[in-house]
């Protein structure tokens, strides 16, 4: 929306002037500090949130308080991000370092024999999430403590924990950029990218379950992309996708469709064992199977789009919303607690 | 003596047990009774005691933060040291961000810090503002909300002292032609104001909120997304869609309702957005 385009500039000016006013006193309808904070933390039930928004829409005082909370939160996030920038991402060091790397690559390219095949584009391989029919590109379990291979590193969308996990459209943009990258750049940056993705995998909710054996992970980065989910022994595979699609591939290669019971897009999954698998998707969709065959819908703590899940059993699960909230359950979804 | 009625404790025993387990009160030598009492007070304050949502209310409580707040109110040095280490820097950073000014931010934070510690002693106990925290949100967000409320009160107090910055400037000159033009301008601006008012009122609450955050509070797209729980690209897209809707509705009202030509509609915008210091908000009596 910004910058203001010429056609809408007069209306923008009018809107700014029309909406300028001073805050009034608190009214009986105004929310108290804790309610405003709970709204900001997304701790309120949907019905109460909607009721409050009807008031917030026209109450400058409440808007100001919520705006203040948002400013403080963004300021804190920016401060955390700035303090956490590793040395190779600080421009004063990165630019000379990149220049040196580029010079070395040019030297290698000049010296390389003409008939040598170019190496694979590791960045493109990481970004791709198509599930091939015969040989799936298997993402490594997010819980694996060792550095994942570049070709099978999990995608940012499912594993970026918080405070601001990238949305699916950001991931789509990142994928486009990755695919457009030239091979030499991919070779130079491939190792860095895999390290970055691995760091993103260390989410608080997921690291809590990281030590559990058999944890699996899946990832999705776009509406048209299918996600594959493996248990630790990789004896079976589930493929999930749009409109509630769930397919299972057995060890003998047999592929069959399973009834999910939902029509929402499914985006991520985790399978701690061959008979247990959890799947999450849009609009708070959570599915679970405990026999590897039949799926049940699990009541979700939110109707937000869900982007990630990690599970250590049929009972212990953590889910991540598109807004970055993490909920966990230890009773198979009967109750959820925000982390 | 327990504040929570026995029937409350009995009816919601499983949820209260989960709350106590999550709270980790043993770290601060807190008994389960104090947590149950706090849950009861919170449910009562939130007005959910009579409903079917008490269990979910209790399960949504930020248990560790509540436990710490209770322990600090009780006067323990260990919880208070933990509170200082964990939250004092963030409180001051939040105050700076909210006030937009180092000095004013420090003043806000100092005041709240003192009230949380409890400067007033009554019946041998410090009275702390932490007693208003029931765990419905994280304690950090609650502190930010209190700071923001106090800053809003400060702004109101300042606006009562200083004159409003917009006022109707009378054009110089006394010719009849000039008076007629001023009257014409005021009429056009009033028509635009009414059309805008009607279009704004027809918006959904969330669309009005988004517009207010962008045009009134000048939040960034990211900050608006934080408030609205939307991605900033979604905020941008929806703001643009709402603005297009307002433009269409305003022009439809001016054209169909007031029979203005396109040139006259353009004049409405130009005069409303022009050099004359006309307080457009006075043309919108229902806009708060």
String of helices and strands of chain A: HHHHHHHHHHEEEEEEEEEEEE
| Mean pLDDT reading of chain A | 70
Taken as a percent bin, the fraction of beta residues of chain B is under 5%
Low-pLDDT ranges of chain B: 163-176, 275-280, 282-288
| Domain unit count of chain B | 2
Count of alpha and pi helical runs of chain B: 13
Strand order of the largest sheet of chain A: 1-2-3-4
Q: From the alpha-carbon coordinates, what is the Rg of chain B to the nearest angstrom?
A: 26 Å
Question: What share of residues of chain A is helical?
Answer: 25-40%
Radius of gyration of chain A: 23 Å
Q: Can you tell me about this structure?
A:
The complex is a heterodimer of chains A (339) and B (288). In chain A, 36% of the residues lie in helices and 14% in strands. With 339 residues, chain A is α+β, with helices and mostly antiparallel strands. Chain A folds into three domains: 14-83, no CATH class; 90-202, no CATH class; 207-338, YVTN repeat-like/Quinoprotein amine dehydrogenase (Methylamine Dehydrogenase, Chain H), CATH 2.130.10.10. In chain A, a hairpin with a 5-residue loop joins strand 3 and strand 4. The longest helix of chain A has 24 residues, at 60-83. Residues 117-223 of chain A have low confidence and may be disordered. Chain B folds into two domains: 6-155, no CATH class; 176-283, no CATH class. Chain B has helices at 6-11, 13-23, 32-46, 54-60, 63-73, 77-99, 102-117, 139-161, 176-201, 205-216, 221-228, 232-257, 262-273, and strands at residues 120-122, 125-127. Chain B has a two-stranded antiparallel ribbon. In chain B, a hairpin with a 2-residue loop joins strand 1 (120-122) and strand 2 (125-127). In chain B, 40% of the residues are buried.
